[in-house]
Amino acid sequence: MGDNLAALAIDSRKLRLYCLRISDQIMILGNGGVKITRTYQEDEELSGYVMDLQRFDELLKKAQQNGSITIEKNMIVGIQNKTFEL
């Protein structure tokens, strides 16, 4: 899909925290949970968290393309009063 999604394995890979890695200095933390299946797609709850982050990533990219936000060194400029509908 070409998104910025990343999964952080915590506690011997049993716990997953999903996030968006926007740059080397910007990471947006999402949600996660206990990984009891081989892949997140096999778990309805984890899959939902991933889909929300993927949609948010898509909306961020569109906002950047249309100029309503910009991504600078260590901040996202213009996001303070912006609303995103997932």
Write the layout of secondary structure elements.
Elements: E1 5-10, E2 15-21, E3 27-34, H1 44-65, E4 70-72, E5 75-77
Antiparallel strand pairs: 1-2, 2-3, 4-5
Explain briefly what this protein structure is.
The protein has one helix spanning 44-65, and strands at 5-10, 15-21, 27-34, 70-72, 75-77. The chain is an alpha+beta fold.
Features:
alpha+beta; 5 strands; 86 residues; 26% helix; three-stranded antiparallel beta sheet
- What structural class is derived from the secondary structure elements? alpha+beta
Q: State Rg.
A: 14 Å
Mean pLDDT over the residues: 91
Label the overall shape: elongated
C-alpha termini separation: 17 Å
Q: What low-confidence regions span 5 or more consecutive residues with pLDDT below 50? A: none
Order of helices and strands: EEEHEE
DSSP summary, beta strand count: 5
Our estimate of the beta-strand percent is: 25-35%
Q: What oligomeric assembly is this protein in?
A: single chain
Largest beta sheet: strand ordering: 1-2-3
Biggest sheet record: 3 strands, antiparallel
**Share in helix:** 25-40%
Number of helices, where a helix is a run of at least 4 consecutive DSSP H or I residues: 1
Written overview of the protein:
Helix content is 26%, strand content 31%. It is an alpha+beta fold and 86 residues long. The longest helix is centred in the middle third of the chain and has 22 residues, at 44-65.
